Hints:
Number of domains: 2
Radius of gyration: 22 Å
Shape: elongated
Amino acid sequence: MVGEFDKTLKRKIDDVQRHIDFLRKLGRDNLVPYWIARKNKLCAEITIIEVVCSYCKKHIGTKDGKGVTGVSHGICDECNARLKDDQDNECFNHLDE
């Protein structure tokens, strides 16, 4: 889950991008660099942790980074089920003897 602070920043970033698009449409390219710099500054403030599966590298979701940006690892439902089945089979292999 992304924190409220990051949601507000995302809205601001979207607003700035709309300004950039509008200025380009009007042919006011001389003002665009200012807005791009502003957008980059806002983007640097977002702190989101992307969560990926340790096994298949599938994107699982995002969570609030609480001041840190990066990648964290977990396990997706498919890999979890597959590992659980593998472990169950290994646990009971000795019964087949």
